[in-house]
Amino acid sequence: AAVSNPKTVKATAGDNCKVTLKWSKVTGATSYVVYRSTNGKTWTKVKLTTGTSYTVTGLYSGTTYQFKVVAYSSKLKIYGDYSSVVKGVTTVGKVEDLKASSRKKTSITVTWDKERGAAGYVVYVSPDGKSWTKLVTTTKNTATASNLTKNKYYYFKVRAYSKASGSTVYGSYSTTLKAKTKLF
Fold first, then answer.
1. Judging by DSSP bridges, how do beta strands 167-170 and 133-138 pair with one another?
2. Beta strands in 31-75 (DSSP E)
3. Would you call 77 exposed, middle or buried from its count of C-beta atoms within 10 A (0-12, 13-18, 19+)?
4. pTM of the full predicted structure?
5. Percent of the chain at pLDDT above 70?
6. Taking a C-beta distance cutoff of 8 angstroms, is the pair 116, 92 a contact?
7. Mean pLDDT of the chain
8. Closest residue by Cα to residue 98 from 40, 179, 152, 170
9. In angstroms, what CA-CA distances link 23 with 34, 54, 73?
10. At residue 28, does pLDDT exceed 60?
11. Which three-class secondary structure state does DSSP give residue 61?
């Protein structure tokens, strides 16, 4: 009796350069071997696991990876066939340490930590923390909102993006920053 290949392998990209794989249980399998590749030719063994899911970490952001899984039966001491190949594109991490670096009567400048692998950032501003407007897309880790009302709170959030295989991949939004313009 042979061991079949894992069916319905799915890849879900997550923040901070990781991809989670899930597959269906194979009858007779005691473990599974996860492989990854960036070119579909050279494959690297990532993990031997007994579960039907695994999160691959330590990947480069904004990169398209290919994955396949093979089942193993310790009882029969044989491997099954490889699963079909699935692709997963990693995103950039969540922007951290968003702060108001300058506050004036009619403008607020915000800064944040650079995110590894980011091609740029999209900055959003809101007068109430509910309705958001895109302020700017920038490659820098700073942006200024101008023409604001004095002595009023404004809300900001930022997300990084990367370019992978010709498409733009966005990371999660930063935590929201609340900053007030000056009265005088």
1. unpaired
2. 31-37, 44-49, 53-56, 64-73
3. exposed
4. 0.68
5. 96
6. yes
7. 91
8. 179
9. 11, 9, 16
10. yes
11. coil
